Amino acid sequence: MLGIKRTDKIKNNIVYETIKEEPLTQTIQRRQLRYIGHCLRRNTNEFINMYALYTPKSGHGTRKRGRPRLNYPDYVARLINNDTPPTIEEIRKTAVNREEWQSNEFIIISNVTAAFHLKIAQAKVFPTWLHFTPV
At the top level of its lineage, which domain of life is listed (predicted)? Predict the structure, then answer.
């Protein structure tokens, strides 16, 4: 397509900038956040809203040895901000406001290179709660 061979040793972020595309993982994660935002904007007594960010109580069942499994609410929080993940209440509060939630969709993705992060950061306005410091 671009005439780039594997032996050329060109970094992925340079290829993405050349073709003006984002990585597939970033597209998938943005769509996941869009869907969870849609679910959280539904009526509060609907099952999809009640269980979208459900976490079972501690002591519920037993688990095997090793590292604890990543549950879905923690996964969503780490998509939004990997350094200081927001709480479930903050996620729910932000998802109610559609404009603020849609601006968050482009900030996520902690696994993309720094150059791509910088490009996204210059184009978007960050909401205030993404840079909160825990008290």
Answer: Eukaryota
**Among 86, 115, 89, which residue's Cα sits nearest to residue 104?**
86
CA distance 133 to 135: 6
On whether the CB atoms of residues 108 and 126 are closer than 8 A, the answer is no
Dist. CA 43–CA 35, nearest whole Å: 15
DSSP 8-state assignment for residue 128: G
pTM recorded for the entire structure = 0.66
pLDDT tens figures, 59-94: 777 778 888 888 899 999 888 888 888 888 999 998
Distances (CA, A) of 103 to 5, 42, 77: 36, 19, 15
